[in-house]
C-alpha cells in the first residue's frame, strides 16, 4: 500500500460539509479514477491529500509514515509534496517561465539539483509528453492541450510516487482532450501511480484499474473498474452512470 | 523677442539644465529606488496577510496618500528640528519623496500581486517550493511587469514633483530658475524655459518607459 487516507473530514465556512468521512487507499501502480457529480468534494479531497486545503480531521499514511491531516507540520507537508505531483484543471503553468523552466523550476529551487542536470531531466520529461520542440515556448504561446502536457511533464520530472490529477481535460477544447489522455495512458502503462478526478468515462473504464464514486462528500462505491461499470452495487451509482452515459457522444465510446 | 532676452535665455539654459542633471535627476532616481523597496515591502506584507505589519502598511498608505506632499516636506524639514531632528535639505527631500511615492507605488504593486493567478502559487508549492521562493521567483516578477507602466508614470510624476523641494532650499532646477528670475525680472520667459526642460526630461522618461514595456512583454504576447 502506497497511500491510505482514513476518515477525512472537511467543512467550509463552518457549515458546508464538503468531505464527510472519506477513506481510500492506493496501491503502488494503481490508476484510480474518482467520479462524481459536480460539487461532491472531489477537488477538495485531492487538495486535502496534498495540503492545499487543510482537512479538519483525517489520517494519512504515505511513504511509510502516518500523519494527522489536521495538524501536519510545514516540514512534513514539504516532504510529502516532494514525493507527489499535482496536475490542475487550469494547468497553472508559471506564466513568466518557458515550458522547460516550468519543469525545472521545482527541481532547481526546491530540490537544489544543478541546472544542467535539471535541464536534462526537464527535456526528457517534455520529450515524454511529446513537446521536445516547445521547450523554449512560454505558456501564452502554447495551446491548452500543450500547456496541460507541460504541467504533466512538470509533475513527472521530480519522479513522484503518486500524481494527483484534478479534471485534467475539463478545461480543454474537445479536439485537444485526446492528446492529454494519450499522455496519461502512457504514464499508466509505465506504471505511474495516479489518482485522477475525471469525467472521462472511457479513461475510468479502460485505463484506470479502480474507480471511486463520490457524492455529497462521501464515497458511495469503490471497486475494480470493470466491476464498477458492469456490475455497480449501489442504486446511486447506477443512476449516475446512466445520466453520464447518456451524455457521452458515440465517438467518445471505444 | 529682442536679442537681449534671447541672450539671457541661452545663457540661463545651461544654468537651469545643470542643476536639473545634477540635482533633479539624482533626487528622482534615489527617491524612486527607495520608494520601490518601501512599496514592495508594504505590498508584500498586505498580500501575504502578515499580522500587525499589514495594518501598519495600511496606516502608512492612508496617512501619506491623505496629506499633501508639500506639507510633508514642511513637517520633515521645518518641523522636525523642533524635536531635535535637523536634516540637510537634500536628505530631507529624499526621505519625503521616497516615503510619499512609496505609498502610491505600494498600492500599484499590491494590485499587481493580486492579479497573478493564485493557481500559480499553489502549483509552485506543489513542486516543493516554499511560499517565499514562489513569491520571489514566480509572483513578484510577474507583478513587477504588470506594475511597470504604472510605476513608470510614478517616476515621471516624481520627477516633476521634485520642483517642490525648492521650498525646503534644495537647489534643484526650479530653485535655480527662481533665482535668475528674481535677478532679471524675466519671469514669463524663464518659467516657460524651465517648463520646457521638465518636458524634455519627461519625454526622455516616457521613451524609456516604452522601451522597457516592449522588453518586458516578451512572455505575455504570442510570438507565432
Ligand atoms: N475554498 C472554498 N470555500 C468555500 N466553499 C468551497 C471552497 N472550495 C470548494 N467549496 C465548496 O465545496 C463543495 C465541493 O467542491 P469541490 O471539492 O470543488 O467539488 P467537485 O470537485 O466534486 O466539483 C462545493 O459546494 C464548493 O462550492
Ligand atoms: Mg472539481
3D architecture notes:
The complex is a heterodimer of chains A (254) and B (224). Chain A has 9 helices and 10 strands. Chain A has helices at residues 42-49, 74-81, 99-109, 115-128, 144-157, 174-189, 201-206, 225-230, 235-247, and strands at residues 3-12, 16-26, 31-35, 57-62, 65-68, 84-87, 162-166, 194-197, 210-215, 218-224. In chain A, a hairpin with a 3-residue loop joins strand 1 and strand 2 (16-26). Chain B has a single domain, classed as Orthogonal Bundle (MetI-like fold). Chain B has 8 helices and no strands. In chain B, helix 1 packs antiparallel against helix 7 and helix 4 (89-114) packs across helix 6 (131-161). Chain B starts with a helix and ends in an 8-residue tail after the last helix. The model of chain B has no long low-confidence stretch (mean pLDDT 94). Classes of the chains: A alpha/beta (254), B mainly alpha (224). The interface between A and B is medium-sized, with 29 and 26 residues. Bound molecules: adenosine-5'-diphosphate and magnesium ion. Residues 12-13, 16, 18, 36, 38-44 of chain A line the site of adenosine-5'-diphosphate (ADP). Residues 42-43, 167 of chain A line the site of magnesium ion (MG).
Amino acid at each position: 500500500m502506497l497511500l491510505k487516507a482514513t476518515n477525512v473530514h472537511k467543512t467550509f465556512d463552518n457549515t458546508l460539509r464538503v468531505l464527510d468521512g472519506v477513506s481510500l487507499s492506493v496501491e503502488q501502480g494503481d490508476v484510480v479514477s474518482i467520479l462524481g457529480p459536480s460539487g461532491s468534494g472531489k477537488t477538495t479531497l485531492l487538495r486535502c491529500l496534498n495540503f492545499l486545503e487543510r482537512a479538519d480531521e483525517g489520517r494519512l499514511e504515505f511513504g511509510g509514515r502516518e500523519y494527522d491531516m489536521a495538524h501536519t507540520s510545514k516540514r512534513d507537508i514539504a516532504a510529502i509534496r516532494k514525493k507527489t505531483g499535482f496536475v490542475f484543471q487550469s494547468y497553472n503553468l508559471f506564466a513568466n517561465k518557458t515550458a522547460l523552466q516550468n519543469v525545472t523550476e521545482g527541481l532547481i529551487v526546491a530540490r537544489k539539483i544543478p541546472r544542467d542536470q535539471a535541464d536534462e531531466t526537464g527535456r526528457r520529461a517534455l520529450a515524454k509528453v511529446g513537446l521536445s520542440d516547445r521547450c523554449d515556448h512560454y505558456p501564452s504561446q502554447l495551446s491548452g492541450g500543450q500547456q496541460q502536457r507541460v504541467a504533466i511533464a512538470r509533475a513527472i520530472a521530480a519522479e513522484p510516487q503518486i500524481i494527483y490529477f484534478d479534471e485534467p481535460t475539463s478545461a480543454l477544447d474537445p479536439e485537444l482532450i485526446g492528446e492529454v489522455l494519450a499522455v496519461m495512458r502512457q504514464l499508466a502503462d509505465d506504471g505511474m501511480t495516479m489518482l485522477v478526478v475525471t469525467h472521462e468515462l472511457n479513461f475510468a473504464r479502460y485505463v484506470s484499474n479502480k474507480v471511486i464514486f463520490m457524492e455529497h462528500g462521501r464515497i458511495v462505491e469503490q471497486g475494480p473498474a470493470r466491476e464498477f461499470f458492469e456490475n455497480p452495487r449501489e442504486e446511486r451509482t447506477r443512476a449516475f452512470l446512466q445520466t453520464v452515459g447518456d451524455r457521452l457522444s458515440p465517438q467518445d465510446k471505444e | 523677442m529682442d536679442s537681449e532676452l534671447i541672450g539671457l535665455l541661452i545663457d540661463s539654459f545651461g544654468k537651469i539644465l545643470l542643476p536639473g542633471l545634477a540635482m533633479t535627476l539624482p533626487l528622482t532616481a534615489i527617491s524612486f529606488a527607495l520608494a520601490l523597496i518601501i512599496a514592495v515591502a508594504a505590498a508584500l506584507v498586505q498580500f501575504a496577510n502578515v499580522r500587525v505589519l499589514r495594518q501598519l502598511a495600511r496606516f502608512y498608505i492612508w496617512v501619506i496618500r491623505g496629506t499633501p506632499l508639500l506639507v510633508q516636506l514642511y513637517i520633515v524639514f521645518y518641523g522636525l528640528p523642533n524635536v531635535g531632528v535637523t536634516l540637510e535639505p537634500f536628505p530631507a527631500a529624499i526621505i519625503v519623496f521616497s516615503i510619499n511615492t512609496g505609498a502610491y507605488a505600494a498600492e500599484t504593486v499590491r494590485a499587481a500581486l493580486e492579479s497573478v493567478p493564485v493557481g500559480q502559487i499553489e502549483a509552485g508549492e506543489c513542486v516543493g517550493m516554499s511560499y517565499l521562493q514562489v513569491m520571489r521567483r514566480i509572483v513578484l516578477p510577474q507583478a513587477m511587469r504588470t506594475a511597470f507602466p504604472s510605476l513608470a508614470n510614478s517616476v515621471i510624476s516624481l520627477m516633476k514633483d521634485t520642483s517642490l523641494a525648492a521650498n525646503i532650499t534644495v537647489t534643484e532646477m526650479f530653485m535655480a530658475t527662481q533665482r535668475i528670475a528674481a535677478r532679471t525680472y524675466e519671469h514669463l520667459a524663464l518659467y516657460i524655459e524651465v517648463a520646457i526642460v521638465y518636458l524634455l526630461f519627461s519625454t526622455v522618461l516616457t521613451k524609456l518607459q516604452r522601451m522597457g514595456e516592449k522588453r518586458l512583454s516578451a512572455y505575455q504576447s504570442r510570438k507565432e
